[in-house]
Amino acid sequence: MNQEVSDIFVRKWETRDGVVVPEPEDLGLANDGVYLDATVLYADMSASTDLVDAYPAQFAAEVYKAFLHCAAKVIRAQDGEITAYDGDRIMAVFLGKVKNTAAIHAALSINDCVRNIVNPSMESVYHKGYTLSHKVGIDTSKLLVARTGVRGANDLVWVGRAANYAAKLTGLDSKASTRITKTVYDRCLDEARYAKGENMWYTITNSGPGGLTVYGSNYFWSV
Amino acid sequence: MAFTDDLKSEVGGILAAAWSTREGRQVPDTTSIRLGNDAVTLNGTVLYADLAESTNLVTRFKPEFVAKVYKCYLNVACRIIRQKNGEITAFDGDRVMAVFLGDMRSTNAARAALAIAHAVRHVVNPALRDNFKDLPADFAIKQAVGLDESALFIARTGIRNANDLVWVGRAANYAAKLCSLRDGDYGTWITKAVYDRMDATVKTSADGRPMWEARTWTAYSESVFRSNWSWQL
After folding, report:
1. Do B4 and A160 touch (CB under 8 A)?
2. pLDDT tens digits for range A40-75
3. CB nearest to A160's CB, from B58, B97, B151
4. Which residues in B lie closer than 8 A to residue A85 (C-beta atoms)?
């Protein structure tokens, strides 16, 4: 173990600029890395601990599956790449010129799915009175992507502000289902800012992660 | 509207279909569970190992350095988990999730947790200071491990070519949340269920001192235990 750790620290990085999300196999387990300008989206179910505590596992698993299914489909439809599932949350990366607009479009579409597909369908099958709510966080920055883990169980690590901030935004105390940093807002197209001339966004805080202003929205974009 | 209809029919299918469940004895492969409402149930101890203050690292240091820290921490955690018979089930950012099964599940998981604490203190942090001489003198990475055990309901989720397992059960949620209770050197946090099942070798030290302190987790009104001990590799 000493050897592994010291190799990781000593070895020089081989980095290259990328334009596509790498497969874990594309990167060596040694210090190989790819730089990307990327927008990261985290979508997270709210209060899943309460769901698991209060309802049978079968029901909770159906809610997880329905939510994650819709999120995954909507992300793909906006050309996002799903980079991790962990419990009740999903991480995705968007690349290219319209990455911020695409990520916002995906977030507002996930909101549509939860309100207009998952919740009505759940109520019509179960009549349990349970309402799913969720949060989506979006930030954008340069990211260094490297491979981690051990042989047979490895994955990519995403190192950069956007990977941390996007996850943190989902934890902010706010009613807004979608939360974006000012950087994302400043770099998206008007179609992701305004609906019928109204600004879809309001300020949640001027001191979010890294002191950034965070904007929130409860708008939805029909899928 | 075709896309909306697809989503509606998928969601309707998930909610309406009956589950086909079986009891498992091993951690299933993603492909051994079908994408429909197929599931495996297990009694397991879930471990989450989480690098603390990673946002601080990412904002203060170069990505090349931070990526090395992530890789070392996750590499060490994975090796220890495997060595204690745990199965790695998810990576997400700077954290790793693993599941331990069988009668020794909580003993093995507790040994893994304390061994990760040991490795971070005695392997990773010294190696960091040796290799990066211009780090502040008090620089050290911090981490937390959370453990809980419960029945788990395991299903497959996502869509074709991007899918994974969902682990539904108290232990999957609590183990992740316990990591945030980290307080100074107290990096290992476990529920009473884990404490009650683990054997005496991980409860007291060789010279008879208790390695765990009882606390109350007020957010969930749960009895939990914390430790600042480490377990030799």
Report:
1. no
2. 999 999 988 889 989 988 899 899 989 998 999 999
3. B58
4. 90, 92, 157-158, 163-164, 166
Measured between alpha carbons, how far is A146 from A29 in angstroms, rounded to an integer? 8
Which residue in A149, A92, A164, A168 sits closest to B96, CA to CA? A149
Does domain B17-27+37-227 fall under CATH 3.30.70.1230? My reply is yes
Does this complex have an ipTM over 0.90?
no
Report d(CA B65, CA A12) in Å as an integer.
10
Domains of chain A: 30-217 (3.30.70.1230)
Write out residues 178-217 of B within 8 Å (CB-CB) of A.
none
What is the model's pTM?
A: 0.88
**Domain spans of chain B, in order of start:** 17-27+37-227
pLDDT digits (tens, 9 = 90+) for B61-98: 988 899 889 988 998 999 999 999 999 888 877 889 99
B132 contacts in chain A (CB < 8 Å): 9
Residues of A in contact with B174 (CB under 8 A): 49
Distance CA B96, CA B85 (A): 15
